[in-house]
TrEMBL record:
Disulfide bonds join 24-39. GO terms for cellular component: apoplast; extracellular matrix. It comes from Acer yangbiense. Residues 1-18 form the signal peptide. It is found in: Secreted, Extracellular space, Apoplast. GO terms for molecular function: manganese ion binding. Mn(2+) binds at residues 101, 103, 108, 147. Its main location: secreted. This is Germin-like protein. Residues 53-199 form the Cupin type-1 domain.
Length: 209
């Protein structure tokens, strides 16, 4: 009796999976919720929804960090909505750095295609894992952990990254501390930095308080 029930349950599960829609191209005219965008009507979906050409051009690295990230998330690339994947391009000029940051919603895989990049992350036990990567090397950064990338050579570096979410999220540690109006005295108490240093960093990163 158990075997027929088991077979029946498999058949039911198979038919349920078969009924799942093939894709959910994001309707960018609506709001983005925790589960992503609502689905665009299939009749309005075109092949262009599944193609993104924005990663072919280098980003502008003439900024304070000498780096640029060009995302292909659901907001830019609605075809990945609901698929649990996305990508980005990472350009690092000589001396460029992507500061300590975290992606709350996704793990990340980085592949170096030009130059040399020192990359690493810090575990929740405060263990540090970092290495200088060269062309063809791949490194993974587990979801939610602080990590960084630094140009380790004297010439521009290029990498492509993939994420396990169409909307991985981003929080940069420096901006979280010094790019807002969190009072200087609170930052001093929680980081053990002196007020003069904090105010200087706030001035550089656009914070106040």
């Amino acid at each position: 009796m158990i075997l027929p029930i088991f077979i029946a349950s498999l058949l039911f599960a198979s038919s349920s999976f078969a009924a799942v829609q093939d894709f959910c191209v994001g309707d960018l005219s609506g709001p983005e919720g925790p589960a992503g965008f609502s689905c665009k009507k299939v009749a309005k979906v075109t092949v262009d929804d599944f193609v993104f050409s924005g990663l072919g051009a280098a980003g502008n690295t003439s900024n304070i960090i000498k780096a640029a990230v060009t995302p292909a998330f659901s907001t830019q690339f609605p075809g990945v909505n609901g698929l649990g994947i996305s990508m980005a391009r990472l350009d690092l000029a000589a001396g460029g750095v992507i500061p300590m940051h975290t992606h709350p919603g996704a793990s990340e895989v980085l592949v170096v295609v030009q130059g040399s990049i020192c990359a690493g992350f810090i575990s929740s036990a405060n263990a540090v894992y970092f290495k200088s990567l060269k062309k063809g090397d791949i490194m993974v950064f587990p979801q939610g952990l602080l990590h960084f990338q630094i140009n380790a050579g004297g010439s521009p570096a290029l990498a492509f990254v993939s994420f396990s979410s169409p909307a991985p999220g981003l929080q940069i540690l420096d901006y979280a501390l010094f790019g807002n109006n969190l009072p200087t005295e609170l930052i001093a108490q929680t980081t053990f930095l002196d007020s003069a240093t904090i105010k200087k960093l706030k001035g550089v990163l656009g914070g106040s308080g």
